[in-house]
Amino acid sequence: MANEPDFIDYVCDQIDDACDVSYRHMFGGTTLYSKGKVVALICDNQLFVKPTDAGRAYIGNVTEAPAYEGSRNFFLVEDGIDDTEWLTGLIQQTEQELPPPKPRKKK
Q1: What is the pLDDT of residues 40-53, one digit of tens each?
Q2: CB-CB contact of 91 with 52 (8 Å)
Q3: Whether CATH 3.30.1460 fits 5-97
């Protein structure tokens, strides 16, 4: 599941700043956040976006695949990564449909 740092930077650079994208390396992959919500994973230099109804409608003909062995299916984004406007729209649609993150319990 290792990722090339250049690929992670490229994906993040393709998404408009309005999405407030950040990432964190976790479990051998990379988790992408938009406005604090988990919207996608990068595993083996492939982009997997969380499935939502809005994302499905936006993409149209969706390719679904697990991001890693044992995971549920995500939307596998291949060709759209190079299209800044399209990818930004997908991330915005996904982020808007997801619920806010649950607050962490204080210890």
Answers
A1: 999 999 999 999 99
A2: no
A3: yes
